[in-house]
Amino acid sequence: MKSSVGMENYSGPPNLVNPANLRNPVYSMPRVKVRQDYEDWQDSQDREIKQLIMRNLKCRSFVFILLLGWTTAVSAQQKSLNLGIVSPNTKTDLKLEQAIAGMSSPEEAKLVNQAVNLGCVVRSRITAFRALGSWNDGAEPSVLLRVRGDEESLRYVLSRMGRDAAQKYVIYFHPQPAGPVDLYVLRPRTSMKNLVKLTNELERSGIPFSTIVPARGTTAIYIVDLDRDLREKILAAARKLRAQVSKETGNAKLFGDDLREKAKEKFDQEIKNYEAKNPNLPPTCDVQKRKSKGH
Question: What is the DSSP letter of 122?
């Protein structure tokens, strides 16, 4: 095995400085001269080895810097995992039990499927979940989606969903390290299937609005703290529910209008702007599947 510092080039001192000869009475050279030559040779070897080591270290440092730069670039290119919330509901004054029943409606299923199929348009996989949106004086069935991408793509997806579902507003959260908004996610240690009880507990804790996503064996509670004034109440609710808490900072926006027609105009404008910047977008996933089956 070759040494990493070039010791394969080492050939040992010349015969005239063999240490054994220093004690040989028949050796003809003066002892002082022999010792000096030997010491000079050792010094030159030490200098050569040190130079090789320094070159080796510099090379490794350069490679490390390249790797670090590449890793940083890859990390910077990682797309954020966004959150969006849209409801299929157009009725007013729903009771909590009616909102929970609406989570199993055809309209809810249609909106979930639309979210998933739009993933092919923005070229990023979208996961969508049936959810319950709850606030102080009402509730409605909702769809919560997660998708990686930029903020414009997220707004585009939500605008298409909001327009097609005839919604007044949609809301989203886009992670940003220095964002002005906090997103909290509470996960109770035991699955809470009783959504009425869970919703009432959140209201008693002073949480004005939340989105509850019941899934297999677990329940997640999403709270967008727009004004950053709910932290203590959220932590108190988490203690009561024995829930794990995670927090993320970013940008959030509730956009639309109180009038459905004006909301539709805003959604249409958002869609038009995005498609002008991104021409020739691919069709939705379901359309692509139908085309592939037709060939």
Answer: T
Same domain, 142 and 278: yes
pLDDT at residue 16 greater than cutoff 50: no
Specify if 3 maps to a domain: no
Question: Is the whole model's pTM more than 0.85, yes or no?
Answer: no
- Tally of domains within the chain: 2
Task: Tell the residue number behind the tokens 């797309």, with chain if given.
Answer: 79
Structure token pair of residue 216: 């297999």
Pair 101, 220 in one domain = yes
Any idea how long the chain is? 295
pLDDT tens digits for range 239-270? 999 999 999 999 999 999 999 999 999 999 99
Question: H-type helices in 82-137, by residue range?
Answer: 96-102, 106-117
| Structural domain boundaries enclosing 56 | 19-76
Cβ atoms within 10 Å of 263's Cβ, excluding its own = 21
| 7 residue type, one letter | M
Residue 262: count of CB within 10 angstroms of its CB: 12
287 in a structural domain? yes
Would you say residue 12 lies in a domain?
no
SS3 of residue 64 by DSSP: helix
Q: Are residues 192 and 272 in the same domain?
A: yes
Taking the CA atoms of 191, 195, 200 and 203 in sequence, report the sign of the dihedral they define: positive
Q: What token pair was written down for 289? A: 């599947």
2 inside domain:
no
Spatial neighbors of 54 by CB under 8 A, at least 6 apart, are none
